[in-house]
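ok new one. same drill as before - structure tokens go in, u give me an amino acid for every spot. 359 of them this time. try not to just spam alanines like last time pls lmao
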């Protein structure tokens, strides 16, 4: 495949004090070829884990702001994951928590990584996200809306770039600052640059930021790979860019095992690169641990399901089935554990433990 934005040099245009445009050349590394990606991946064991947010946080801001950064809950709940052999977590960041307190934000990232590492868990960090609420503010976050899936989750940057012409420059500083701090940190296995670009009916409107964040990442040149997961087949321009610019291939699939396998056979395995399934497992859609996880292990695809502990995100409720009376759904949509560490389905945690630990 032809590669986008992978030239050995990228020219940024700036304006000097006289008003004259001057060219500044910044080295931009190439996309990893399949050979390099597979050589890197061959050194890793097969990993399974979850998209993680502590049960006490409704969104990324509540997780990362100083006043609500909850190390006790993070430690306890990562312990639940480690107890069933999970060894990787995917964790969302948010630029506003950094913008409010850059050094404190990075220090909290480091504390999170130390806790995860103590449980022998690697981390996939996510920068941008087109899902759910498009406005947000720093400080105390809203309470969950009863029975509604992800009622308080927020996009990043959402509508910010429409409202603030200087936002792109600020987002570049954010991405580069975080990547520079952690570019050689072996507790991080992957940088997921943009979650579900084009969601919320944005479509190709998300393409400029997607291109920018890959360029910013390559300018920093972390030792970890860069990726952004494909998630909907009709977003052809976005998918093409993501597949051609990701060092390793990541994707989301909430379909049943037959359709999931069709995705693998029709295009994902054909990339010849390591695969990270960074979201799956929606029980009422027949994407389950018993059907999907063995298939992912067979192909040595990193398996990251949505949701670890039932909490303020309300992701035990389905996307399109609100239960405003707050009653327990007949079948949990996502999540594995109750807050006290009791499994939702003991047969599921037994299967995960068997596949991850051979027990």
């Amino acid at each position: 495949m032809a590669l986008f934005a992978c030239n050995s040099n990228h020219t940024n245009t700036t304006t000097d004090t006289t008003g004259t445009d001057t060219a500044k050349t910044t080295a931009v590394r190439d996309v990893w070829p399949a050979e390099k990606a597979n050589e890197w991946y061959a050194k890793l064991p097969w990993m399974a884990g979850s998209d993680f947010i502590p049960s006490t946080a409704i969104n990324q801001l509540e997780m990362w702001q100083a006043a609500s950064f909850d190390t006790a809950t993070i430690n306890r709940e990562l312990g639940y994951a480690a107890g069933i052999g999970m060894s990787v977590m995917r964790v969302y960041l948010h630029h506003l928590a950094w913008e409010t307190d850059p050094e404190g934000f990075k220090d909290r990232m480091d504390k999170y990584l130390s806790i995860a590492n103590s449980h022998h868990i690697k981390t996939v960090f996510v920068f941008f996200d087109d899902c759910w609420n498009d406005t947000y503010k720093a400080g105390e976050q809203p309470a969950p809306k009863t029975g509604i899936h992800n009622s308080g989750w927020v996009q990043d940057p959402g509508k910010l770039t429409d409202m603030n012409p200087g936002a792109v420059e600020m987002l570049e500083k954010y991405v580069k600052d975080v990547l520079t701090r952690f570019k050689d940190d072996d507790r991080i296995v992957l940088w997921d640059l943009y979650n579900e670009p084009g969601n919320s009916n944005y479509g190709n409107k998300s393409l400029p930021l997607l291109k920018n964040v890959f360029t910013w990442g390559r300018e920093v040149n972390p030792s970890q790979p860069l990726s952004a997961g494909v998630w909907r087949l009709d977003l052809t321009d976005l998918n093409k860019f993501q597949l051609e610019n990701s060092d390793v291939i990541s994707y989301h699939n909430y379909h049943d095992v037959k359709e999931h396998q069709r995705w693998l056979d029709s295009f994902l395995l054909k990339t010849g690169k390591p695969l990270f399934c960074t979201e799956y497992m929606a029980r009422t859609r027949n994407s389950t641990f018993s059907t999907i996880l063995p298939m992912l292990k067979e192909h040595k695809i990193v398996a990251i399901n949505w949701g670890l502990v039932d909490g303020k995100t309300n992701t035990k409720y389905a996307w399109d089935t609100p239960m405003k009376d707050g009653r327990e759904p007949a079948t949990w949509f996502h999540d594995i554990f109750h807050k006290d560490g009791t499994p939702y389905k003991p047969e599921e945690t037994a299967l995960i433990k068997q596949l991850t630990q051979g027990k």
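The radius of gyration is 20 Å. and btw The chain has one domain: 30-357.
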